[in-house]
Amino acid sequence: MYIGELARRTGVTRKAIRHYESLGILPEPKRKGSYRVYDQDDEKLLCVITEAQKLGFSLREIREISTTQNCSRMLPVDKVLQMIESKRAELRTAIADAQRLDRDLAALTDRLGSMHETTDAEYPVDSSPRGKV
After folding, report:
1. Is 85 part of a structural domain of the chain?
2. What pTM was computed for the model?
3. Is there a contact between 47 and 10 (Cβ–Cβ < 8 Å)?
4. How far apart are CA 25 and CA 102, in angstroms?
5. pLDDT value for 115
6. Cα 58 from Cα 46, distance rounded (Å)
7. Does the residue 72 lie in any domain?
8. CA-to-CA distance for 124 and 86, rounded, in angstroms?
9. Do the beta carbons of residue 15 and residue 55 sit within 8 Å?
């Protein structure tokens, strides 16, 4: 199939397909004259690339996987599983950080609420220009 058909079938733009080729993520396709010719394996790989991006993998990470493919164009499953576990660890860290931030914000809300309940006075805000004569 030509690049237009591959783009239509995968939902990836022609420009992105060429970009992936230039980065070495997608192998250089066969040629029929000046036309790029792709096969089912290219379509499958492009779908994997798209899915990996949706899951938060960078093009650099995807390239690292794709450049370690063996001669039969199969993905190195052990390497992929290792990278998935690493991405999951990053996600768990980000979740823990977000939960910690949420607890801190809740505590600040409670403290401000307590301060507001103990005094009805409004807190003055200095609106004078700073550093001006």
Report:
1. yes
2. 0.64
3. yes
4. 39
5. 81
6. 14
7. yes
8. 49
9. no
**What tokens appear for 35 in the block?**
């036309």
Domain residues for the domain of 38 are 3-116
Query: Which two three-digit tokens encode residue 49?
Result: 């690339």
- Cα 83 → chain centroid: 13
Question: For residue 130, is it within any domain?
Answer: no
CATH of the domain at 12: 1.10.1660.10
If 0-12 CB within 10 Å is exposed, 13-18 middle and 19+ buried, where does residue 45 land? buried
Report the amino acid identity of residue 68.
Answer: T
Q: What is the total count of domains within the chain?
A: 1
DSSP state of 40: H
Q: Is residue 71 part of a domain?
A: yes
At residue 129, the pLDDT reads 64
Q: What is the pLDDT of residue 70?
A: 47
Q: What is the pLDDT of residues 14-46, one digit of tens each?
A: 999 999 999 988 888 899 999 999 999 899 989
CB hemisphere CA count around 132 (13 angstroms): 4
H/E stretch holding 120: none
Q: Any residues with CB less than 8 A from the CB of 65 and at least 6 apart, and which?
A: 52, 75, 76, 79, 80, 83
